What does this fold into?
Amino acid sequence: MTGPSSACRHILGVDIGGTTITLSVCREQPGDLPLLLESVAIKTRDAPDADSIQRVLTEGSRALLARHDVRADACGISCGGPLDPARGLILSPPNLPPWGTLEVVRIIEESLEVPAQLLNDADAGALVEWRFGAGVGVRHVLFITHGSGFGAGIIANGALYQGSGQAGEIGHVRLERSGPVGYGKSGSIEGFCSGGGIAQLAQVAAVEQYQQGREVAYCDGAHRVHLIRAEDAARAAVDGDPVARDVFDRAGDYLGRALALLVDLFAPQRIVLGAVYQRAQALIEPSMRRALAREALASSLDACEIVPARFTGELRHLAAYAAATYRDPFADLQGH
It folds into this structure.
């Protein structure tokens, strides 16, 4: 009889995003990507308060493990910041419902009796791309989430860099005194560059067009402007609509300015961009490259590749797996 070794661990994954919460269970495969047994997606808006998110996490995880008749050996939780990973706390990220301070590690450990570990989603994504994806073989890598939020995971000298716990929150940096709101701050990098920020840029552009008596290719009427998503503008831009293309030109310019800051600060060998860049690279790339050439140190930029992430939808369970299996190389030195 053949089959997986009894020594292979089962990992419960929890990935908490602004749109979707993904629960997953996978089996470790030494030296390779984990084998996904199942993942379940729940709309984040369906957990509007602290009690409901606790039910989603505990009851959903129990049901998932029961369907596969396995017991989790570890649990990894990935979530956008702000967080306190050392204490296992989610600290009211702006793109999540108002859960307050969520003791997510305690909730999982006490209800499921499994050791759990929390990582920032950008840090977890950086580990995944560095170990298995577009960052393999490189010692200095930055991974940018570039989805509903905008954060950086930093691999420096072949190790994850977390600082005091909140390193890489580049989306919180303000580029302009005013502008789209992201990470609770008007004119921030997240406001201009994230998927939600691009939607805001597209909405403002649509309002300007309607006020001038013009039609908008990616909107059915002025009363529906608030429903415009980045995806709507992207489709119109691909079809050649000049208003939509200008939206992505602006977003690409701000993205280039943000990346120039990172290039100058960290001099990475590679920057790996997820989500929005993966789907809209052709729309964003030209203005992004112009801004980089204008703003970044030439020698550092020449030494840096900028590439799309390898992983897309599967990043959710892989990020949670990375959170579960990550070991801080300095953990044993803490307190000394």
